[in-house]
Amino acid sequence: xxxxxxxxxxxxxxxxxxxxxxxxxxxxxxxxxxxxxxxxxxxxxxxxxxxxxxxxxxxxxxxxxxxxxxxxxxxxxxxxxxxxxxxxxxxxxxxxxxxxxxxxxxxxxxxxxxxxxxxxxxxxxxxxxxxxxxxxxxxxxxxxxxxxxxxxxxxxxxxxxxxxxxxxxxxxxxxxxxxxxxxxxxxxxxxxxxxxxxxxxxxxxxxxxxxxxxxxxxxxxxxxxxxxxxxxxxxxxxxxxxxxxxxxxxxxxxxxxxxxxxxxxxxxxxxxxxxxxxxxxxxxxxxxxxxxxxxxxxxxxxxxxxxxxxxxxxxxxxxxxxxxxxx
Amino acid sequence: xxxxxxxxxxxxxxxxxxxxxxxxxxxxxxxxxxxxxxxxxxxxxxxxxxxxxxxxxxxxxxxxxxxxxxxxxxxxxxxxxxxxxxxxxxxxxxxxxxxxxxxxxxxxxxxxxxxxxxxxxxxxxxxxxxxxxxxxxxxxxxxxxxxxxxxxxxxxxxxxxxxxxxxxxxxxxxxxxxxxxxxxxxxxxxxxxxxxxxxxxxxxxxxxxxxxxxxxxxxxxxxxxxxxxxxxxxxxxxxxxxxxxxxxxxxxxxxxxxxxxxxxxxxxxxxxxxxxxxxxxxxxxxxxxxxxxxxxxxxxxxxxxxxxxxxxxxxxxx
Lengths: 327, 318
Fold this sequence. Notes:
The complex is a heterodimer of chains A (about 325) and B (about 325). Chain A is mainly α and about 325 residues long. Chain A has one domain (about 15-20, about 30-315): ABC transporter involved in vitamin B12 uptake, BtuC. Chain A has helices at about 1-30, 35-60, 70-85, 100-120, 125-145, 155-160, 170-185, 190-200, 200-205, 210-235, 250-260, 270-290, 295-325, and strands spanning about 85, 95, 150-155, 165, 165-170, 240. In chain A, a hairpin with a 2-residue loop joins strand 4 (about 165) and strand 5 (about 165-170). In chain A, helix 1 (about 1-30) packs parallel to helix 12, helix 2 (about 35-60) crosses helix 12 and helix 4 (about 100-120) packs antiparallel against helix 10. In chain B, the strands form two sheets. Chain B has a six-stranded parallel sheet with strand order 2-1-3-4-5-11, with helices on both faces. Chain B has a six-stranded mixed sheet with strand order 7-6-8-9-10-12, sandwiched between helices. In chain B, helix 2 (about 35-55) crosses helix 10 (about 270-285), helix 5 (about 130-145) runs parallel beside helix 6 (about 160-175) and helix 7 packs parallel to helix 8. Chain B is built from eleven helices and twelve strands. Chain B is elongated, with a radius of gyration of 22 Å. Chain B is of the alpha/beta class and about 325 residues long. Classes of the chains: A mainly alpha (about 325), B alpha/beta (about 325). The interface between A and B is large, with 43 and 40 residues.
């Protein structure tokens, strides 16, 4: 156990060092990178990914995956804006109130639970189940909005654009969720049960862990996280379009895997996922600031994902070897 | 009289199988690369054009996936459509789709996004992304008026024709003005969130930014959000205004021009484009020769001072 812990700690330390190194490189090349305002921007830009990554960590440690989180962001926002928004005259503006928040979160929860039910109720592999709902939820979102553009005003902007003690409200929210999530995963009974379930599902069930409930719970969490990410993004951008959440799942999963959570389950860290999200956002920010060649962005994103998956495979192999070797 | 009935049936069958189809017998397969507000406007325009032509349609959306779009084109061919009107997601994949379709005897027409090889399609009609990019570039040159000018270029998709040529021709037009510095080119894959973050980051590094090129309307709201956060959302003509040029002509773009937040929007002539694409598809399905195989329709530039005068020809302003 201690060997596995130290391996994970080492991985996080390595990630923090990479984040620091990347920051130093960008800081030396651009005047504005190390500016306090820019650091605030990085934190704010990272919040949807952090929130998604916190929830996705729970899913992945149980050997699951949720490819539909971006589509949930889209369909939850479509549901909430269409149900609670009011078109201002014949203009393109939709006025929203605070009712948009509970409706979006309830929609996210419902779609997350549906994912969980398909997986535990119907016994469908999580990858296949959420690949299906990725398309299904996006289709429902398109149907609800008729692919129209909703330029939003009113209550919906409060979360995305609000400030508290010099930081954006989403930053505080993400920090709170990451702290709570970190505690829940590493210290709570439920968190340990999730790790046990991902590490060895058969033994976990034999020891009395209610695996179906846990799986329902983790997909409910990604549903809520998807809706929260959608609320923040639309609140910041000020517009709901059909492309909301497109590709979000890959950013989130990359952040989680970068952070040391194993795609093979049983091992994961919320702090690592948060560092992964910050690294991805920092790279995007730095490339923007140095005016990088636009064709470089996808190359860098692809490289980061490849490195993350390679490290995960290597550390998992090492971890298994450590467990197998006699003390 | 008796032999006439079988003869008529045979004649009709022969015409149906090999002869030119009447418009009401034509089913057009419509393959879109994605659904978003601009595409929604194009769907409405295509619906109207197909209804006007008296044809039927079968619609499929590829949702930003070139592989899926290729499969959908195969499906349309299998379903027996008489012609295909497509907005391709990937310019290279479009060539293969066109070749497969034409080899199956189904004319392949592209709209809006040109394939990498225009010879591969029966007909193409699009906006003129190069003309639009050039118009935008010339506008920035005029706005800079020989003075140092920092410009942020937000880019759409780098895998499709509109994204590539709206960027390339902007930069060609800017080449004549060494006083204009493009401080960053931010690729977004048409994401409004990435456009906002790109503008936010550029304003962080260059608080004295002079202009932003936002080559599609959906992303404008995010740009306004970034400008507002830095206290730079100032109307056209007032001190501190950031010159903003966009393309599309959506209702959102028209509103932004009327609110004097955008200096120039270039409206793509969507209804005309859809009508030409549908008419060409019907004609090709009937075996008729298409005189002009490629047409590019330049956008209609409009700004706060002439939006009302031009409103009648701007579909997004009505």
